[in-house]
Amino acid sequence: MSFPGSGLAKGLAVTLRTMTKRSVTAQYPDVQPDLPPRSRGVIGLFEENCTVCMLCARECPDWCIYIDSHKETVPPAAPGGRERSRNVLDRFAIDFALCMYCGICIEVCPFDALFWSPEFEYAETDIRELTHERDKLREWMWTVPEPPALDPKAEEPKEIAAARKAADKLAAQQAAEAEAEAPAQDAEAPAQDRDRERPETPGEGT
Amino acid sequence: MSDALDIALRLLAVFAVFLVFPLVIGQTEHKVMAHMQGRLGPMYAGGFHGWAQLVADGVKFAQKEDIVPAGADRRIFQLAPAVALLPYLLVLVAIPIGPHNAVGQDLDAGIFFVLAVMGVGVLGSLMAGWASANKFSLLGGLRTAAQLLAYELPMLLAAASVAMAAGTLSLTGIVEAFHWWWLPWQIVGGVVFFTAGLAELQRPPFDMPVADSEIIFGAYTEYTGLRFALFLLAEYAGIVVLCALTSVLFLGGWHGPFGAAGLGWLWTLLKTVILAFGVIWLRVTYPRLREDQLQKLAWTVLIPLALAQIALTGVIKVVISS
Protein backbone atom coordinates (compact mmCIF):
# COMPACT_ATOMS: atom_id res chain seq x y z
CA MET A 1 0.00 0.00 0.00
CA SER A 2 1.27 3.44 -0.79
CA PHE A 3 -0.22 6.82 -0.19
CA PRO A 4 0.58 9.75 -2.49
CA GLY A 5 3.95 11.24 -1.64
CA SER A 6 5.31 8.07 -0.04
CA GLY A 7 7.97 7.94 -2.74
CA LEU A 8 9.05 11.48 -1.86
CA ALA A 9 9.23 10.58 1.82
CA LYS A 10 11.25 7.48 1.03
CA GLY A 11 13.75 9.60 -0.88
CA LEU A 12 14.13 11.96 2.05
CA ALA A 13 14.63 9.00 4.38
CA VAL A 14 17.38 7.58 2.19
CA THR A 15 19.40 10.79 2.15
CA LEU A 16 18.91 11.32 5.88
CA ARG A 17 20.01 7.78 6.67
CA THR A 18 23.09 8.16 4.48
CA MET A 19 24.00 11.32 6.37
CA THR A 20 24.09 9.46 9.67
CA LYS A 21 26.41 6.77 8.35
CA ARG A 22 30.16 7.10 8.11
CA SER A 23 31.22 8.35 4.74
CA VAL A 24 33.27 6.05 2.58
CA THR A 25 35.78 8.64 1.40
CA ALA A 26 39.38 7.43 1.60
CA GLN A 27 41.58 10.39 2.53
CA TYR A 28 44.43 9.01 0.51
CA PRO A 29 47.43 11.31 0.79
CA ASP A 30 46.81 11.68 4.51
CA VAL A 31 45.90 8.07 5.14
CA GLN A 32 47.58 5.26 3.24
CA PRO A 33 45.15 2.86 1.61
CA ASP A 34 44.69 -0.57 3.10
CA LEU A 35 45.79 -2.65 0.14
CA PRO A 36 44.63 -6.22 -0.31
CA PRO A 37 47.23 -9.00 -0.45
CA ARG A 38 48.74 -9.58 -3.90
CA SER A 39 48.23 -5.95 -4.86
CA ARG A 40 49.89 -5.14 -8.14
CA GLY A 41 51.88 -2.01 -7.49
CA VAL A 42 55.30 -2.42 -9.03
CA ILE A 43 57.44 -5.33 -10.21
CA GLY A 44 60.59 -6.17 -8.25
CA LEU A 45 63.55 -8.07 -9.68
CA PHE A 46 65.45 -10.57 -7.58
CA GLU A 47 68.42 -10.48 -9.92
CA GLU A 48 70.38 -13.19 -8.09
CA ASN A 49 67.78 -15.63 -9.38
CA CYS A 50 67.75 -14.36 -12.96
CA THR A 51 69.39 -16.60 -15.55
CA VAL A 52 68.70 -14.33 -18.53
CA CYS A 53 66.42 -16.93 -20.05
CA MET A 54 64.49 -14.05 -21.68
CA LEU A 55 61.12 -15.71 -21.13
CA CYS A 56 59.70 -12.64 -19.42
CA ALA A 57 60.83 -10.30 -22.18
CA ARG A 58 59.41 -12.58 -24.83
CA GLU A 59 56.06 -13.12 -23.15
CA CYS A 60 55.54 -9.46 -22.30
CA PRO A 61 52.55 -8.26 -24.39
CA ASP A 62 53.83 -4.70 -24.34
CA TRP A 63 57.47 -5.53 -24.92
CA CYS A 64 58.37 -3.31 -22.04
CA ILE A 65 61.15 -5.45 -20.56
CA TYR A 66 64.67 -4.75 -21.79
CA ILE A 67 67.40 -7.32 -21.11
CA ASP A 68 71.07 -7.18 -22.13
CA SER A 69 73.51 -9.93 -21.24
CA HIS A 70 76.80 -11.48 -22.23
CA LYS A 71 78.32 -14.93 -21.86
CA GLU A 72 81.16 -15.70 -19.55
CA THR A 73 83.17 -18.88 -19.45
CA VAL A 74 83.56 -20.40 -16.06
CA PRO A 75 86.68 -22.45 -15.40
CA PRO A 76 86.03 -26.17 -14.82
CA ALA A 77 84.76 -26.96 -11.37
CA ALA A 78 87.04 -29.95 -11.01
CA PRO A 79 90.48 -30.41 -12.55
CA GLY A 80 90.23 -32.05 -15.95
CA GLY A 81 86.63 -30.95 -16.41
CA ARG A 82 85.11 -28.93 -19.19
CA GLU A 83 84.77 -25.15 -19.22
CA ARG A 84 81.18 -23.98 -18.80
CA SER A 85 79.62 -20.86 -20.27
CA ARG A 86 77.19 -18.84 -18.16
CA ASN A 87 74.84 -15.92 -18.92
CA VAL A 88 75.60 -12.73 -17.07
CA LEU A 89 72.94 -10.01 -16.74
CA ASP A 90 74.07 -6.58 -17.93
CA ARG A 91 70.82 -4.70 -18.04
CA PHE A 92 67.33 -5.47 -16.84
CA ALA A 93 64.79 -2.66 -17.20
CA ILE A 94 61.01 -2.45 -17.13
CA ASP A 95 59.33 0.52 -18.73
CA PHE A 96 56.37 1.15 -16.44
CA ALA A 97 55.06 3.72 -18.89
CA LEU A 98 54.30 0.79 -21.19
CA CYS A 99 53.64 -1.93 -18.63
CA MET A 100 49.99 -2.86 -18.28
CA TYR A 101 50.48 -4.78 -15.05
CA CYS A 102 49.28 -8.05 -16.53
CA GLY A 103 51.79 -9.98 -14.46
CA ILE A 104 52.62 -12.45 -17.22
CA CYS A 105 56.37 -11.91 -16.71
CA ILE A 106 56.00 -12.89 -13.07
CA GLU A 107 53.89 -15.92 -13.91
CA VAL A 108 56.28 -17.08 -16.58
CA CYS A 109 59.57 -16.66 -14.71
CA PRO A 110 60.82 -20.20 -14.05
CA PHE A 111 63.41 -19.12 -11.46
CA ASP A 112 61.32 -16.84 -9.24
CA ALA A 113 63.22 -13.72 -10.12
CA LEU A 114 60.22 -11.38 -10.54
CA PHE A 115 57.73 -10.45 -7.83
CA TRP A 116 54.79 -8.15 -7.31
CA SER A 117 55.29 -5.38 -4.79
CA PRO A 118 52.33 -3.33 -3.48
CA GLU A 119 54.25 -0.04 -3.73
CA PHE A 120 52.40 2.23 -6.14
CA GLU A 121 53.68 5.76 -5.51
CA TYR A 122 56.35 6.05 -8.18
CA ALA A 123 54.77 8.63 -10.45
CA GLU A 124 57.29 10.83 -12.25
CA THR A 125 57.13 14.16 -14.01
CA ASP A 126 59.24 12.80 -16.86
CA ILE A 127 58.04 9.70 -18.67
CA ARG A 128 61.61 8.51 -19.17
CA GLU A 129 62.01 8.19 -15.43
CA LEU A 130 59.39 5.46 -15.49
CA THR A 131 61.88 3.03 -17.00
CA HIS A 132 63.22 1.38 -13.89
CA GLU A 133 66.71 -0.07 -14.29
CA ARG A 134 67.95 -3.17 -12.52
CA ASP A 135 69.20 -1.45 -9.37
CA LYS A 136 65.84 0.24 -8.88
CA LEU A 137 64.02 -3.00 -9.63
CA ARG A 138 66.28 -4.73 -7.10
CA GLU A 139 65.38 -2.08 -4.52
CA TRP A 140 61.68 -2.85 -5.00
CA MET A 141 62.41 -6.41 -3.83
CA TRP A 142 62.72 -5.11 -0.26
CA THR A 143 59.10 -4.04 -0.40
CA VAL A 144 57.78 -7.41 -1.57
CA PRO A 145 55.63 -8.83 1.22
CA GLU A 146 56.04 -12.43 2.27
CA PRO A 147 53.50 -14.64 0.58
CA PRO A 148 50.18 -14.90 2.38
CA ALA A 149 49.85 -17.91 4.66
CA LEU A 150 48.32 -21.06 3.24
CA ASP A 151 44.77 -21.96 4.07
CA PRO A 152 44.44 -24.29 7.04
CA LYS A 153 44.78 -27.95 5.96
CA ALA A 154 46.02 -26.87 2.55
CA GLU A 155 48.28 -29.15 0.57
CA GLU A 156 51.95 -28.65 1.28
CA PRO A 157 53.70 -26.49 -1.33
CA LYS A 158 55.40 -28.64 -3.94
CA GLU A 159 58.91 -27.34 -3.36
CA ILE A 160 58.73 -27.95 0.37
CA ALA A 161 57.33 -31.42 -0.20
CA ALA A 162 60.16 -32.19 -2.61
CA ALA A 163 62.80 -30.84 -0.22
CA ARG A 164 61.40 -32.84 2.64
CA LYS A 165 61.40 -36.00 0.56
CA ALA A 166 65.06 -35.48 -0.41
CA ALA A 167 66.04 -34.77 3.19
CA ASP A 168 64.24 -37.86 4.48
CA LYS A 169 65.95 -39.98 1.87
CA LEU A 170 69.36 -38.62 2.81
CA ALA A 171 68.73 -39.19 6.49
CA ALA A 172 67.63 -42.76 5.88
CA GLN A 173 70.73 -43.42 3.79
CA GLN A 174 73.07 -42.02 6.42
CA ALA A 175 71.35 -43.96 9.13
CA ALA A 176 71.81 -47.14 7.11
CA GLU A 177 75.52 -46.36 6.60
CA ALA A 178 76.01 -45.70 10.28
CA GLU A 179 74.25 -48.98 11.03
CA ALA A 180 76.54 -50.84 8.64
CA GLU A 181 79.67 -49.23 10.10
CA ALA A 182 78.71 -49.70 13.69
CA PRO A 183 79.54 -53.46 14.06
CA ALA A 184 82.91 -52.96 12.32
CA GLN A 185 83.84 -50.04 14.57
CA ASP A 186 82.65 -51.84 17.69
CA ALA A 187 85.55 -54.20 17.43
CA GLU A 188 88.37 -51.65 17.32
CA ALA A 189 87.05 -48.27 18.57
CA PRO A 190 86.47 -47.63 22.25
CA ALA A 191 82.89 -47.20 23.43
CA GLN A 192 83.21 -43.47 24.12
CA ASP A 193 83.84 -42.73 20.43
CA ARG A 194 80.61 -44.38 19.46
CA ASP A 195 78.66 -42.42 22.02
CA ARG A 196 79.96 -39.17 20.62
CA GLU A 197 79.00 -40.06 17.08
CA ARG A 198 75.54 -41.44 17.67
CA PRO A 199 73.40 -38.40 18.43
CA GLU A 200 74.58 -36.59 15.30
CA THR A 201 73.32 -38.99 12.71
CA PRO A 202 69.56 -38.74 13.15
CA GLY A 203 69.67 -34.95 13.40
CA GLU A 204 71.33 -34.37 10.06
CA GLY A 205 68.56 -34.88 7.56
CA THR A 206 65.62 -33.31 9.40
CA MET B 1 21.80 61.51 18.13
CA SER B 2 20.83 58.28 19.85
CA ASP B 3 18.27 57.78 17.10
CA ALA B 4 20.96 57.91 14.47
CA LEU B 5 23.11 55.53 16.51
CA ASP B 6 20.19 53.17 16.93
CA ILE B 7 19.53 53.13 13.20
CA ALA B 8 23.20 52.67 12.42
CA LEU B 9 23.45 49.72 14.82
CA ARG B 10 20.35 48.09 13.40
CA LEU B 11 21.58 48.48 9.85
CA LEU B 12 24.98 47.17 10.87
CA ALA B 13 23.39 44.11 12.47
CA VAL B 14 21.26 43.46 9.39
CA PHE B 15 24.31 43.84 7.18
CA ALA B 16 26.33 41.47 9.33
CA VAL B 17 23.57 38.89 9.14
CA PHE B 18 23.42 39.43 5.39
CA LEU B 19 27.15 38.79 5.04
CA VAL B 20 27.52 35.91 7.47
CA PHE B 21 24.38 33.80 7.24
CA PRO B 22 24.51 33.00 3.53
CA LEU B 23 28.10 31.82 3.97
CA VAL B 24 27.15 29.67 6.95
CA ILE B 25 24.33 28.13 4.96
CA GLY B 26 26.61 27.62 1.98
CA GLN B 27 29.16 25.83 4.12
CA THR B 28 26.42 23.77 5.74
CA GLU B 29 25.23 22.84 2.30
CA HIS B 30 28.73 21.70 1.34
CA LYS B 31 28.97 19.44 4.35
CA VAL B 32 25.38 18.20 4.58
CA MET B 33 25.22 17.45 0.88
CA ALA B 34 28.54 15.62 1.04
CA HIS B 35 27.51 13.45 3.96
CA MET B 36 24.12 12.73 2.43
CA GLN B 37 26.03 11.39 -0.55
CA GLY B 38 28.48 9.40 1.57
CA ARG B 39 31.31 11.87 1.00
CA LEU B 40 33.23 14.16 3.32
CA GLY B 41 33.04 17.46 1.45
CA PRO B 42 35.76 20.09 1.74
CA MET B 43 38.39 19.04 4.28
CA TYR B 44 41.44 21.22 3.70
CA ALA B 45 40.61 24.93 3.52
CA GLY B 46 41.07 26.54 6.92
CA GLY B 47 42.41 23.38 8.51
CA PHE B 48 39.44 22.10 10.47
CA HIS B 49 37.02 20.21 8.21
CA GLY B 50 37.36 22.82 5.49
CA TRP B 51 35.48 25.50 7.39
CA ALA B 52 37.05 28.26 5.26
CA GLN B 53 36.11 26.72 1.93
CA LEU B 54 33.72 29.52 0.98
CA VAL B 55 36.28 32.15 1.97
CA ALA B 56 38.76 30.44 -0.32
CA ASP B 57 36.10 30.35 -3.04
CA GLY B 58 35.50 34.05 -2.57
CA VAL B 59 39.20 34.81 -2.91
CA LYS B 60 39.32 32.71 -6.05
CA PHE B 61 36.31 34.48 -7.56
CA ALA B 62 37.80 37.88 -6.76
CA GLN B 63 40.99 36.98 -8.60
CA LYS B 64 39.24 35.99 -11.80
CA GLU B 65 38.98 38.23 -14.80
CA ASP B 66 35.70 40.10 -15.09
CA ILE B 67 34.55 39.41 -18.64
CA VAL B 68 31.72 41.15 -20.43
CA PRO B 69 30.85 39.52 -23.76
CA ALA B 70 31.32 41.71 -26.84
CA GLY B 71 27.66 41.50 -27.87
CA ALA B 72 26.30 42.02 -24.37
CA ASP B 73 24.26 44.96 -23.23
CA ARG B 74 27.12 46.20 -21.15
CA ARG B 75 25.53 48.22 -18.38
CA ILE B 76 22.55 45.95 -17.85
CA PHE B 77 24.90 42.98 -17.83
CA GLN B 78 27.03 44.54 -15.14
CA LEU B 79 24.09 45.74 -13.11
CA ALA B 80 22.22 42.42 -13.02
CA PRO B 81 24.11 40.76 -10.10
CA ALA B 82 23.42 43.75 -7.87
CA VAL B 83 19.75 43.66 -8.79
CA ALA B 84 19.68 39.98 -7.91
CA LEU B 85 21.43 40.38 -4.57
CA LEU B 86 20.36 43.68 -3.02
CA PRO B 87 16.61 42.96 -2.67
CA TYR B 88 17.41 40.23 -0.17
CA LEU B 89 19.35 42.73 1.92
CA LEU B 90 16.35 45.03 1.86
CA VAL B 91 14.01 42.21 2.84
CA LEU B 92 16.21 41.29 5.81
CA VAL B 93 15.67 44.79 7.18
CA ALA B 94 11.97 44.10 7.60
CA ILE B 95 12.08 40.62 9.10
CA PRO B 96 11.55 40.58 12.88
CA ILE B 97 13.66 38.13 14.83
CA GLY B 98 12.42 38.81 18.34
CA PRO B 99 9.76 40.64 20.35
CA HIS B 100 10.08 44.25 21.49
CA ASN B 101 10.98 45.76 18.18
CA ALA B 102 13.93 43.44 17.45
CA VAL B 103 13.71 44.23 13.76
CA GLY B 104 15.68 46.40 11.38
CA GLN B 105 12.67 48.54 10.57
CA ASP B 106 9.12 47.63 11.54
CA LEU B 107 6.87 48.28 8.56
CA ASP B 108 3.10 48.50 8.70
CA ALA B 109 2.78 46.80 5.34
CA GLY B 110 5.70 44.48 6.06
CA ILE B 111 4.42 41.39 4.27
CA PHE B 112 3.53 43.46 1.25
CA PHE B 113 6.98 45.07 1.17
CA VAL B 114 8.80 41.80 1.67
CA LEU B 115 7.01 39.90 -1.10
CA ALA B 116 7.27 42.80 -3.53
CA VAL B 117 10.99 43.25 -2.99
CA MET B 118 11.67 39.50 -3.15
CA GLY B 119 10.05 39.53 -6.57
CA VAL B 120 12.57 42.15 -7.67
CA GLY B 121 15.40 39.74 -6.96
CA VAL B 122 14.25 37.53 -9.79
CA LEU B 123 14.54 40.51 -12.11
CA GLY B 124 18.31 40.20 -11.77
CA SER B 125 18.24 36.81 -13.49
CA LEU B 126 15.94 38.18 -16.16
CA MET B 127 18.25 41.10 -16.84
CA ALA B 128 21.27 38.81 -16.93
CA GLY B 129 19.53 36.45 -19.35
CA TRP B 130 18.53 39.20 -21.71
CA ALA B 131 21.74 41.22 -21.58
CA SER B 132 24.14 38.30 -22.10
CA ALA B 133 23.45 38.03 -25.85
CA ASN B 134 23.56 34.27 -25.52
CA LYS B 135 20.74 31.93 -26.48
CA PHE B 136 21.22 29.73 -23.44
CA SER B 137 21.16 32.77 -21.19
CA LEU B 138 18.02 33.97 -22.91
CA LEU B 139 16.34 30.59 -22.49
CA GLY B 140 17.32 30.60 -18.85
CA GLY B 141 15.99 34.12 -18.43
CA LEU B 142 12.68 33.20 -20.03
CA ARG B 143 12.36 30.14 -17.85
CA THR B 144 13.03 32.37 -14.86
CA ALA B 145 10.27 34.68 -16.00
CA ALA B 146 7.84 31.80 -16.49
CA GLN B 147 8.73 30.43 -13.09
CA LEU B 148 8.31 33.81 -11.43
CA LEU B 149 4.85 34.17 -12.96
CA ALA B 150 3.81 30.68 -11.95
CA TYR B 151 5.09 30.68 -8.38
CA GLU B 152 4.60 34.27 -7.30
CA LEU B 153 0.85 33.68 -7.28
CA PRO B 154 0.66 30.75 -4.82
CA MET B 155 3.26 32.46 -2.66
CA LEU B 156 1.19 35.63 -2.44
CA LEU B 157 -2.02 33.69 -1.82
CA ALA B 158 -0.44 31.69 0.98
CA ALA B 159 0.95 34.85 2.57
CA ALA B 160 -2.44 36.51 2.19
CA SER B 161 -3.98 33.69 4.17
CA VAL B 162 -1.73 34.42 7.16
CA ALA B 163 -2.37 38.12 6.86
CA MET B 164 -6.10 37.39 6.92
CA ALA B 165 -5.73 35.21 9.98
CA ALA B 166 -3.77 37.84 11.85
CA GLY B 167 -5.76 40.75 10.54
CA THR B 168 -2.63 42.76 9.86
CA LEU B 169 0.00 43.18 7.16
CA SER B 170 2.75 43.91 9.64
CA LEU B 171 5.19 41.03 10.12
CA THR B 172 5.60 41.88 13.79
CA GLY B 173 1.82 42.03 14.14
CA ILE B 174 1.45 38.62 12.52
CA VAL B 175 3.91 36.99 14.89
CA GLU B 176 2.31 38.69 17.89
CA ALA B 177 -1.09 37.35 16.87
CA PHE B 178 0.29 33.84 16.48
CA HIS B 179 -1.10 31.01 18.60
CA TRP B 180 0.07 27.42 18.55
CA TRP B 181 -3.13 26.22 16.85
CA TRP B 182 -2.27 28.32 13.83
CA LEU B 183 0.26 25.64 13.00
CA PRO B 184 -2.30 23.00 11.90
CA TRP B 185 -4.62 25.73 10.66
CA GLN B 186 -2.06 27.27 8.28
CA ILE B 187 0.03 24.19 7.53
CA VAL B 188 -1.11 23.89 3.92
CA GLY B 189 -0.40 27.56 3.33
CA GLY B 190 3.02 27.14 4.91
CA VAL B 191 3.94 24.22 2.67
CA VAL B 192 2.73 26.09 -0.40
CA PHE B 193 4.64 29.22 0.64
CA PHE B 194 7.85 27.32 1.26
CA THR B 195 7.62 25.34 -1.98
CA ALA B 196 6.82 28.40 -4.04
CA GLY B 197 9.67 30.24 -2.36
CA LEU B 198 12.06 27.45 -3.27
CA ALA B 199 10.91 27.70 -6.85
CA GLU B 200 11.38 31.44 -6.84
CA LEU B 201 14.93 31.03 -5.58
CA GLN B 202 15.48 28.48 -8.36
CA ARG B 203 16.69 25.95 -5.87
CA PRO B 204 16.73 22.29 -6.87
CA PRO B 205 14.41 20.55 -7.58
CA PHE B 206 13.02 23.75 -9.14
CA ASP B 207 16.23 24.84 -10.85
CA MET B 208 15.00 24.62 -14.42
CA PRO B 209 16.33 28.12 -15.27
CA VAL B 210 19.90 27.01 -14.61
CA ALA B 211 19.50 23.38 -15.74
CA ASP B 212 23.15 22.82 -16.55
CA SER B 213 22.58 19.69 -18.60
CA GLU B 214 20.30 21.56 -20.98
CA ILE B 215 21.15 25.24 -21.08
CA ILE B 216 24.69 25.41 -19.62
CA PHE B 217 23.94 27.59 -16.62
CA GLY B 218 20.96 29.57 -17.82
CA ALA B 219 21.12 33.29 -17.26
CA TYR B 220 24.49 33.05 -15.51
CA THR B 221 26.29 31.33 -18.38
CA GLU B 222 28.32 34.37 -19.41
CA TYR B 223 29.23 35.52 -15.94
CA THR B 224 32.63 35.08 -14.34
CA GLY B 225 34.48 36.16 -11.27
CA LEU B 226 32.91 38.37 -8.68
CA ARG B 227 29.67 38.96 -10.56
CA PHE B 228 29.05 35.23 -10.77
CA ALA B 229 29.85 34.96 -7.06
CA LEU B 230 27.25 37.64 -6.37
CA PHE B 231 24.61 35.57 -8.15
CA LEU B 232 25.54 32.55 -6.05
CA LEU B 233 25.48 34.70 -2.92
CA ALA B 234 22.03 35.92 -3.92
CA GLU B 235 20.81 32.33 -3.97
CA TYR B 236 22.03 31.71 -0.43
CA ALA B 237 20.83 35.07 0.83
CA GLY B 238 17.52 34.09 -0.70
CA ILE B 239 17.51 30.89 1.35
CA VAL B 240 18.09 32.89 4.52
CA VAL B 241 15.27 35.26 3.65
CA LEU B 242 12.84 32.53 2.63
CA CYS B 243 13.49 30.43 5.72
CA ALA B 244 13.28 33.40 8.07
CA LEU B 245 10.10 34.54 6.39
CA THR B 246 8.49 31.10 6.55
CA SER B 247 9.32 30.78 10.22
CA VAL B 248 7.97 34.25 10.93
CA LEU B 249 4.75 33.81 8.95
CA PHE B 250 3.86 30.18 9.58
CA LEU B 251 5.93 28.83 12.47
CA GLY B 252 5.38 31.61 14.96
CA GLY B 253 8.72 33.39 14.82
CA TRP B 254 9.94 34.00 18.36
CA HIS B 255 7.14 31.97 20.00
CA GLY B 256 8.37 28.70 21.41
CA PRO B 257 7.00 25.96 23.65
CA PHE B 258 9.28 27.18 26.46
CA GLY B 259 12.03 29.66 27.08
CA ALA B 260 12.34 33.06 28.66
CA ALA B 261 11.16 36.20 26.90
CA GLY B 262 14.72 37.26 26.20
CA LEU B 263 15.46 34.18 24.14
CA GLY B 264 12.83 34.73 21.49
CA TRP B 265 15.40 35.50 18.83
CA LEU B 266 16.90 32.06 19.47
CA TRP B 267 13.61 30.43 18.49
CA THR B 268 13.48 32.42 15.27
CA LEU B 269 17.05 31.43 14.55
CA LEU B 270 16.41 27.77 15.32
CA LYS B 271 13.38 27.59 13.07
CA THR B 272 15.27 29.35 10.28
CA VAL B 273 18.20 26.96 10.56
CA ILE B 274 15.94 23.91 10.54
CA LEU B 275 14.15 25.19 7.45
CA ALA B 276 17.49 25.93 5.77
CA PHE B 277 18.53 22.37 6.47
CA GLY B 278 15.29 21.31 4.83
CA VAL B 279 16.17 23.35 1.76
CA ILE B 280 19.49 21.58 1.46
CA TRP B 281 17.91 18.21 2.17
CA LEU B 282 15.38 18.70 -0.63
CA ARG B 283 18.16 19.67 -3.00
CA VAL B 284 20.11 16.51 -2.30
CA THR B 285 17.11 14.23 -2.47
CA TYR B 286 15.11 15.17 -5.52
CA PRO B 287 16.00 15.32 -9.18
CA ARG B 288 15.24 18.43 -11.19
CA LEU B 289 11.69 18.81 -12.44
CA ARG B 290 11.06 19.13 -16.15
CA GLU B 291 9.89 22.54 -17.33
CA ASP B 292 6.31 21.38 -17.99
CA GLN B 293 6.17 19.49 -14.68
CA LEU B 294 7.29 22.66 -12.98
CA GLN B 295 4.47 24.68 -14.49
CA LYS B 296 1.95 21.93 -13.87
CA LEU B 297 2.88 21.73 -10.20
CA ALA B 298 2.33 25.45 -9.76
CA TRP B 299 -0.93 25.82 -11.65
CA THR B 300 -2.70 22.57 -10.82
CA VAL B 301 -1.47 21.87 -7.30
CA LEU B 302 -0.08 24.87 -5.48
CA ILE B 303 -2.57 27.50 -6.58
CA PRO B 304 -5.67 25.39 -5.81
CA LEU B 305 -4.13 24.47 -2.46
CA ALA B 306 -3.41 28.10 -1.68
CA LEU B 307 -6.97 29.09 -2.63
CA ALA B 308 -8.37 26.32 -0.46
CA GLN B 309 -6.20 27.57 2.40
CA ILE B 310 -7.59 31.07 1.98
CA ALA B 311 -11.13 29.71 2.03
CA LEU B 312 -10.38 27.71 5.16
CA THR B 313 -8.79 30.71 6.82
CA GLY B 314 -11.78 32.86 5.96
CA VAL B 315 -14.31 30.34 7.26
CA ILE B 316 -12.51 29.76 10.55
CA LYS B 317 -11.90 33.47 10.98
CA VAL B 318 -15.62 34.17 10.63
CA VAL B 319 -16.49 31.32 13.00
CA ILE B 320 -14.09 32.61 15.65
CA SER B 321 -15.09 36.23 15.47
CA SER B 322 -18.83 35.58 15.53
Our measurement of the CA-to-CA distance between the termini of chain B, rounded to an integer number of angstroms, reads 48 Å
The largest inter-chain interface, given as chain pair and residues per side, is: A-B, 13 and 14 residues
Cα(first) to Cα(last) distance of chain A is 74 Å
Q: Helical proportion of chain A? A: 25-40%
What Rg of chain A, in angstroms, do the CA atoms define?
A: 30 Å
Kindly name the structural category of chain A: alpha+beta
Oligomer: heterodimer
Mean pLDDT reading of chain B: 85
SS field, number of helical segments of chain B: 12
User: What is the global morphology of chain B?
Assistant: globular
**If you compute it from the alpha carbons, what radius of gyration of chain B comes out, rounded to the nearest whole angstrom?**
20 Å
Unreliable residue runs of chain B: none
CATH architectural grouping of the largest domain in chain A: 2-Layer Sandwich
Key traits:
heterodimer, A: 206 residues, alpha+beta, Alpha-Beta Plaits, 3-stranded antiparallel sheet, 7 helices, 16% strand, flat, B: 322 residues, globular
Characterize the structure shown.
Chain A is α+β, with helices and mostly antiparallel strands and about 210 residues long. Chain A has two domains: about 35-145, Alpha-Beta Plaits (2-Layer Sandwich), CATH 3.30.70; about 160-205. In chain A, about 35% of the residues lie in helices and about 15% in strands. Chain A is built from seven helices and five strands; from the N terminus they run αβαββαββαααα. In chain A, strands 2-3-5 form a three-stranded antiparallel beta sheet. The longest helix of chain A has about 30 residues, at about 160-190. Chain B has helices at about 1-35, 55-65, 75-95, 110-130, 135-165, 170-175, 180-185, 185-200, 210-215, 225-250, 265-285, 290-320. Chains A and B meet through helix 1 of A and helix 1 and helix 11 of B.
